[in-house]
Sequence to fold (577 residues):
Amino acid sequence: MSTVFILADFSSDKSTKTTAELAAAGARIGAVTAVVLAGSGKGAALAATVNQGPIASVLVIESDDFAFHGVAASADALASLVKEKSPAAVLIASHAFGKEVAARVAVLTESGIITDAVDVAADCTATQLVFGGSTTVHSKVSHGVAIITVRPNSVEADFSASTPAIENGTATIGNDAKKATISSSQPPVKGGRPELTEANVVVSGGRGTDGNFAPVEAFADSLGAAVGASRAATDAGWYPHSHQVGQTGKTVSPQLYVACGISGAIQHRAGMQTSKTIVVVNKDPEAPLFDIADFGVIGDLFNVLPKATEGITARTN
Amino acid sequence: MKIAVCVKQVPDSWAEKKMVNGVLDRENVDAVLNDLDEYAVEEALRIAEAHGGNEEGGAHTVTVISMGPDRATEAVRKALSMGANDAILVSDSALAGSDALATSSVLAKVIADGAYDLVICGTESTDARMSVVPAMISARLGWAQLTFASKVTVDPAGKVSITRVTEAGVDEISAAFPVVISVVEKINEPRYPSFKGIMAAKKKVIDQKDLAAVGASAQSAWSQVNDATPRPARAAGVKVTDEGNGGQDLVNFLAEKKLI
Fold:
């Protein structure tokens, strides 16, 4: 049986649910080896958290170069393992770090690359939703090892406990990969809300908030949701740019997307129209986003959201 | 300093995009300079201006580098009208349908021949949205990768420091020249080309080269599209007007769909 590499994904020193999603996709292709890139002396603790989903083995590489030289060092190490073990595919999380690691691994191993897959089949065919989710594409790497980045929250994960064999390995990191040096790293500020691209529910605010995101945030919190914003809202400085949903921001595909005071320019749609269920609250009955809403409320978000928040809190308490 | 900015001509983001024979139909849509590359052009100009400017015959130059068909000269001209000095456009029919690997290979060859200190890119193109080309160029050239920068500080003596902002947090990263930088949206506010800039750009040189002139060869795409299907349009569902009960209606809908 062929081997598939997944690059284990961590947040706050714990394996994320994205790792389990990569494992679920990888197991369709072959036996999954989760590669753990860790700082010196930290491999065992990290590897111990890679314990969900169909993972056959964990391969731990320890080096302080990962913390000091970031993407390039991680890619060099992973590429050297790929050259050594020739897996059938390498699956990596489709975030900024993962895509850049994949890009460099593709160059270093002379392999084709597919990014932002929402599904991966047993024959390594990747499914992508392109052009703002308006078109479904199936594609396949035709040269070298299939390097595929998989969008978080897309593949159904298998969270059953696994006890993979843990092996320590070595990898080569070239001098070119050490030319950029990281002098400080700060984790993202977490407001207790889930990460936008991983959240099951996203509540977003736009121009209609008039700069006041309080009702959007309160409603999001009642649902345990992440908070997003339209470009109009981030451009106005009402909400951090990192929360922008749309063509030039994040692409989200949650179970439920609630757009509040967002008219729905094509740029915004491009970032959210693959959401499973879409709810729109807008006082303008002509807002184009109503056209793709499963449920729409024509009304002022400052009236509708507080009542909805109350209603949800009443149900869950 | 010699600064290069990589730009791409893309279909207007308002245009409807279609696949034809497994590649994006670029013929029948309006084409524009990739939005996100404008930030790269602006940052290059600001870096030059912060250290004496990029006037003709001065110490710093900003060169636009692009790969694309003849009509990509329009996007390149826009970057020139913002204030870049000159441009290199690689156009060759053999490059049609190139993937990111082939594109990065051609761009890296052009960059290597130009002895640049800084290469600045946008984080992604609004059509393919892969975010991989800057990292690929860095890997191919063996230059430092300083990507997803929300702030760039250049010491013309040969050092660059950036603040990298991604979903993984905020990193301070630095490296010696030469480096490959990508800049995030919001690093700056790109200038509108002035009338003077537009007129001046008409006289600036776009050095259009084919693959042979670059000294590169065409490489077929290393991934293939099997099929591309437009997804059915979403139909509008239920719409209610809030007359005091809209919030509760919303809750009832979520409950009915078992979303709460």
The mean pLDDT of chain A is 94.
